TrEMBL record:
Coiled coil: none
Tree of life domain: Eukaryota
Catalytic activity as recorded in UniProt: Release of an N-terminal octapeptide as second stage of processing of some proteins imported into the mitochondrion
Keywords: Hydrolase, Metal-binding, Metalloprotease, Protease, Zinc
Cofactor: Zn(2+)
Family: Belongs to the peptidase M3 family.
One term of GO molecular function: metalloendopeptidase activity
Protein name: mitochondrial intermediate peptidase
UniProt remark on cofactor binding: Binds 1 zinc ion.
Organism: Trichosporon asahii var. asahii (strain ATCC 90039 / CBS 2479 / JCM 2466 / KCTC 7840 / NBRC 103889/ NCYC 2677 / UAMH 7654)
Length: 595
């Protein structure tokens, strides 16, 4: 998270250093390659094809499929603001927004710290609500910047988002050790108030209290200051490590594939011819999707070995950053009275301590060892058959099984299962088919569906990004999902989910009590606050959640062929959509429970 103490009551929020989860490296569809042609040959031509068992609902969702399966057209760059948020019309708009956010946040912090001195008790009763407002104010900017700095193709936006993210997260680290906030929270829990705190408010307050304690709130002032310094440094180091942006990093040398027509046999001429050459040697960038394709589909073991070893090369600059991170984590653990960083990370987790984790992993390894050895032997037999052209007899000596063999022969094994275990399913789905299937699935489970929405000029960071409105059968619009699914130059390859904004009730915010003079924000311009929307059957007005999904799937090609997803990629999209729906359902349906 961007903070522990301030964000703890918010659901489905991003992680501090690494929101992206490298579940798998998705395999892109490659138009004109033999692989792509194979996919096209296997996808059903029926335009109404969908997942078996998910029949059409009363919602006309044909446009959901069309939204993702037809080419996109570039849109105007008129400055209407990212996510239709007015201030976000150009990169430098983040600078005044940062200052405005800090000024308002400090006013709310001062108000909370003075709450225990209010003789009427009203301010003390508002402490939990005002902590929620403070969280939303800061995280509404931080979470948006986290998305921008990871997904926006414009380096100017990335730079400004980095600066805003680091400035506001640094302030959040200070708030984690703020005695005024802590003492107001303690007074709130101890006070005899009318009306009393609800059960939800008490749980939120206790969560905040525990988070302050985890941040060393009872330590001497100079030690708390060191906590803030180390937290700030780790924030920057984490970003540097992930982006490989340490001082003066040199690009990794290419993976060299000699005789590519021979070694890359099985990948298709389109793929092979697309690789840059130096003389008769094909050049592949380490860590690229091309290298992953080689590891999974090249029939020649030497090609797979070259790609695997090339992907595993050490990067001295990033290693130096990692070592500094480990050193500072160890120091921070000592500041907090822990023996190591694992104790810090696990203090509020189910496992509780490193010993429990080690015990669990050891027992898991022991329990599955025989099954894992059997799986390796099965893949070894596949490798033997690929070498000799026949299945090895029982007891035959099997060839060595290397790390670069795993993905290739696992792919073969899963493909061999397809006729029996996946008979009702097509080997590949278009992106639109999967999204339409998900919409129908959520309609059956939750009574909600996806409705395609046109994006305004400037609303998205790339013209391939599509917008889905999340519609509840009874409550109407409950949130928005932006789908950045398709590959483009420079885009991070990992699948990720971003909660850009959570839902909360906004009509009962006591802005006047923050003590800011009328017109205080005129020098900064507008913020990201919203007047909120009314929802049928609910009292008040709510800002709706905004979620972004990013993947690196293939694109709709110029001939209009849709992006086709393998089963592995379908699982990835289901996984990321699960995170999105957690936010949409929890925030959209239970926003009033967050008060």
């Amino acid at each position: 998270m961007a903070s522990r103490a301030i964000q703890s009551m918010r659901s489905a929020v991003p992680r501090l250093v690494q929101r992206q989860r490298a579940l798998q490296t998705p395999m892109r569809a490659f138009s004109a390659s033999a692989l792509r042609q194979n996919r096209l040959a296997q996808i059903p031509n029926d335009p109404n094809f969908d997942f078996p068992g998910l029949s059409s609902t009363k919602v006309d969702d044909s446009d959901v499929r069309a939204l993702f399966d037809t080419p996109y057209a570039p849109t105007s760059n008129e400055p209407t603001g990212l996510f239709t948020l007015g201030p976000l019309t150009h990169p430098k708009a983040l600078r005044p927004l940062t200052q405005r956010t800090l000024v308002h946040a400090r006013a709310i912090v001062d108000r909370i710290a003075r709450a225990k001195d209010d003789p009427s008790g009203r301010e003390l009763r508002l402490v939990v609500k005002n902590l929620d407002r403070l969280s939303d104010l800061l995280c509404g900017v931080i979470d948006m910047c986290e998305l921008v700095r990871n997904a926006h193709p414009d380096s100017r936006w990335v730079k400004e988002a980095d600066n805003t993210y680091e400035a506001l997260c640094s302030y959040m680290n200070e708030l984690n050790t703020d005695r005024g906030l802590f003492e107001a929270l303690v007074a709130t829990l101890e006070a005899d108030m009318s009306p009393p705190l609800s059960h939800a408010e008490k749980q939120v307050a206790l969560t905040f209290l525990r988070d302050f304690e985890k941040s060393g709130i009872d330590l001497p002032p100079e030690v708390r200051q060191r906590f803030v310094e180390l937290s700030d440094s780790l924030l920057v180091l984490g970003r540097t490590f992930l982006s490989a942006a340490s001082s003066g990093p040199s690009p990794q040398p290419y993976i060299e594939i000699p005789e590519p027509e021979k070694l890359l046999h099985g990948l298709g001429s389109g793929f092979i011819n697309s690789l840059p050459r130096r003389g008769g040697v094909a050049l592949v960038q380490p860590g690229s999707w091309e290298s992953q394709m080689i590891i999974r589909f090249a029939r020649d073991g030497e090609a797979r070995r070259l790609a695997y070893v090339g992907n595993s090369r050490a990067e001295p600059d990033r290693i130096a950053v990692l070592e500094k991170m480990l050193s500072e984590r160890a120091e921070l653990a000592g500041v907090l009275g822990k023996s190591n960083w694992a104790e810090v990370a696990l203090v509020d987790k189910m496992a509780k301590n490193p010993e429990n984790v080690e015990g669990f992993l050891s027992s898991l390894a022991a329990h599955h060892r025989q099954q894992a050895l059997g799986d390796v032997k099965l893949l070894q037999r596949l490798k033997s058959a690929s070498i000799t052209g026949m299945a090895p007899p029982a007891g035959a000596r099997l060839p060595p099984f290397n790390a670069w063999d795993r993905d290739h022969f696992s792919e073969q094994y899963v493909s061999a299962l397809a006729p029996a275990s996946l008979a009702p399913l097509a080997p590949y789905f278009s992106a639109g088919t999967v999204l339409r299937g998900l919409s129908r699935l959520f309609t059956k489970l939750y009574g909600i569906s996806f409705r395609p929405a046109n994006v305004a000029p400037g609303e998205v960071w790339h013209p391939s990004v599509r917008r889905l409105d999340v519609i509840d059968e009874q409550e109407g619009l409950i949130g928005v999902i932006y789908c950045d699914l398709f590959s483009r130059q420079g885009k991070p390859p990992n699948a990720a989910h971003y909660t850009v904004r959570c839902s909360r009730r906004v009509d009962d915010d006591d802005l006047a009590g923050d003590g800011l003079a009328p017109g205080w924000d005129s020098r900064f311009g507008p913020g990201l606050e919203t007047e909120g929307d009314q929802m049928p059957g609910k009292e008040g007005r709510y800002q709706l959640p905004i979620v972004v999904l990013t993947t690196d799937f293939g694109t709709v090609d110029e001939a209009g062929q849709p992006a086709l997803l393998g089963w592995h990629e379908v699982e990835t999209l289901f996984h990321e959509m699960g995170h999105a729906m957690h936010c949409e359902l929890l925030c959209g349906f239970n926003a009033d429970a967050q008060q």
